[in-house]
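COMPLEX REQUEST
Ligand: alpha-D-glucopyranuronic acid
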Amino acid sequence: MNTFKRYFQLLLLILVTVLLLPVNGVSAKEIIRVGHNQSTNHPTHMGMEAFKEYIEENLGDKYEVQLFPSELLGTQTNMVQLTQTGAVEMTVASNSILETFNEQFQIFNLPYLFESPEVYHAVMNDPEIVGPIFEGTKDSGFVVVAWLDAGTRNFYLVKHAVENLQDLKGMKIRVQQSPTNVRMMSLLGGSATPMGFGEVYTAMQSGVIDGAENNELALTENGHGDVAKYYSYTLHQMIPDEVIVNYNFLENLNAEERTVFDEGFQILQDTQQIAWEEKVEEAIAYAKDHMGVQFNYPDIEPFREAVMPLHEEVLGNTPSLKKIYELIEAKNESMRKE
Ligand code: GCU
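STATUS: Structure written out below.
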């Protein structure tokens, strides 16, 4: 990271901390600040509203939950840093960017890791697999308390559909700020351009990038379908969003409060995941009918083959992930449809 960026991040941290202070000062209640980067119409925000309602219904004399959507508190990377220091209590961060805070998170960023959405859900709901990763960041100041569905990631370009690897060659594609995603893009022959989610629309519109990759809600909720008219189901990743909470905040809750919060986290997760199914269907229909986006289904085998070396590379760099990888492979196998 260059000095300017560091300086800017520090400045942002101080600014947000100072801005948030008076809110605490005038309220007798303890404020729980929740940051995320989605719109208020997104399943994640719906989940957060259900969480807020539950906490305030049960512990409202002591706590007030304040929601900050749409990158109001900065990019996800900024928000994770704010959560580490406790300036923000809770944040939704894509698993992608969490790998820069703890290498164990790399595992769920591997392309074509899960053979189906069913395996993805079964893995994320298996405490034996996710437990050590979710709890393993205490030293970094936060833990993961819930995972949210972010569907499958697929390419969408401004000028043409992706039918085969040739169509990605030399294309400037926005990826999340994660080394695994940068490497994935280069194995696919494209030119990875990492940036925060909020910058993608303008970057596509101005021609800085040729396209991006994400789930279908990015087309509608973030308006990317206004600019990118070709959405290609390469199904290359299923990357969860993780809900992270400042560790000291959780530790300072008494046992009764902790129970209510744990119930609240479960309500958040369930509400988000149920809303997800419905919203994706709506987004596809809307993008087709009102935005003129064309959807296509390339043969994914060549894409899979191109990125498989990444599995070996990550397991080679981080051997502690081998056991988890084997557990996931076992799930793939046992859930494979004949
Ligand atoms: C999805 C995901 C977000 C993430 C975004 C991105 O929308 O849910 O957490 O920030 O992709 O590509 O940056």
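REMARKS: The chain has 14 helices and eleven strands. The pocket of alpha-D-glucopyranuronic acid is lined by residues 37, 76, 94, 150, 176, 197, 214, 218, 241 (CB under 6 Å).
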